[in-house]
Amino acid sequence: MSLIRSGSVLSEVLESALPALAPYEGMTPEALRAGVEAGTLCLLANPAHAGARPTLIGRPGRVKVNANIGTSPLASDLAGEIDKLRVAEGAGADTVMDLSTAGNLDELRREMLAATALPLGTVPIYALAQQRMREDRDPADFEPADLLAEIEKQARQGVDFMTVHCGLTRRGAELARDGSRELGIVSRGGAILARWMRGRAEENPLLTHYDAILDIARAHNVVLSLGDGLRPGAGADAGDPAQWEEVLTLGVLARRARAAGVQAMIEGPGHVPLHLVRSQIEGIKRATFGAPLYVLGPLVTDCAAGRDHLTGAIGGALAVLAGADFLCYLTPAEHLCLPDASDVREGVLASRIAAQAAEASLGRPWAVERERGMSKARQALDWEGMARAALDPCLVRARSRGTEHGKECGMCGRFCAIRMSETGERG
Ligand code: SF4
């Protein structure tokens, strides 16, 4: 059956978004519609998110960057999270995920939805686990109906995309815990579900109730971000049986989503050594039938704590070259603490640099044009032009303050190669 069904919420939001979206993405409306129908493009647009900007994920559209924000039990402050949201927007994030695990999560989500036009994503199982922990109960002490109710509530609130770890099976969880991994399960959602399955000796409720989740997602045009609960948390674990067991299940679920009229994208690794990034990305894309791929990093070394935004940007650039569609940022705080606003800014910009480098290399017109714009401005010693072409215009303006248009900067002074080659001036 068709993914875009006549009269469906997806059909309506897609048709109203197409006139603005198609030229921005460099596609014809027909090609864009065909990509959504094929499941290789996803349109993030829950109509209950008032004022939100419909956003396309997938090739041949532009690569997008997501910023994760949200509270933790050690730092819970609504105003601070809204500030991070503003910083993420200002730095050029395309989407934001609220990964809050402390405070009033309903209020936080409502405030974030009201505060931003960027599509908002969540991980609904966090809310359930947080409620249980507040009641001093086990985070995995819930019924499948509780989880479905949470998903539906968030869909009604306007959440545009949700991470649901439907591909994590009992078999996969056991493979991740059989002693062959350096790091077992590093996904919070994956760990909660593995605990639930172990405690009850039952299959993942997100998998056994997948049809009910599809019904909710279709009714609200929520894009399912099929989570990677068994992603490798160490480079040495990349490509192990547990990871691929989950990926293969995700491929089956992506096809079921398409047949049910629901948009789905795939979440990917994780920690992956440099030389394995391409085979990982191509393998996941193949196994999931070309669904849009949303990657965390990948982190190409395990040893850069404090600067994992750089690790992730290196992996992200390689991943885009290999076919990834959507980059989830990492910040300098990754593995260490809750990111602050400055970390958020650095993380978004690092991922945007990765996307720009890879898209320019792939010859994507918008990226090539930006590269050319910068070169022309540099040749003309046009400092404002350089700022406009830069991914971080504020930084360029701040650091070139006082440098006159047409004059060299303080880097080389009278040794300015551009001036010397243009004017024959003696150094
Ligand atoms: S002084 Fe050096 S860095 Fe500055 S514009 Fe000239 S060549 Fe470039």
Task: Write up this protein.
It is a single chain. This protein is of the alpha/beta class. The protein has two domains: 61-362, Alpha-Beta Barrel (TIM Barrel), CATH 3.20.20; 366-423, no CATH class. 50% of the residues lie in helices and 9% in strands. It has 18 helices and ten strands. It has helices at 9-25, 29-38, 78-91, 105-115, 124-134, 144-157, 170-176, 188-200, 205-208, 210-220, 241-259, 277-287, 308-322, 341-361, 365-379, 383-389, 393-399, 417-423; strands at residues 42-44, 55-57, 64-69, 95-98, 120-122, 161-164, 223-226, 264-268, 293-296, 326-328. An eight-stranded parallel β-barrel has the order 3-4-5-6-7-8-9-10, surrounded by seven helices. Strands 1-2 form a two-stranded antiparallel sheet. Helix 12 (277-287) links the parallel strand 8 (264-268) and strand 9. It is globular and about 80 Å long. The mean pLDDT is 96. Iron/sulfur cluster is lined by residues 381, 408-409, 411-412, 416-418.
Compile the SSE list and pairings.
Blueprint (H helix, E strand, L loop, with lengths): L8 H17 L3 H10 L3 E3 L10 E3 L6 E6 L8 H14 L3 E4 L6 H11 L4 E3 L1 H11 L9 H14 L3 E4 L5 H7 L11 H13 L4 H4 L1 H11 L2 E4 L14 H19 L4 E5 L8 H11 L5 E4 L11 H15 L3 E3 L12 H21 L3 H15 L3 H7 L3 H7 L17 H7 L4
Parallel strand pairs: 3-4, 3-10, 4-5, 5-6, 6-7, 7-8, 8-9, 9-10
Antiparallel strand pairs: 1-2
Helix pairs in contact: 3-4, 3-14, 5-6, 6-10, 7-11, 12-13, 13-14, 14-15, 15-16, 16-17
Iron/sulfur cluster (SF4) binds next to α18.
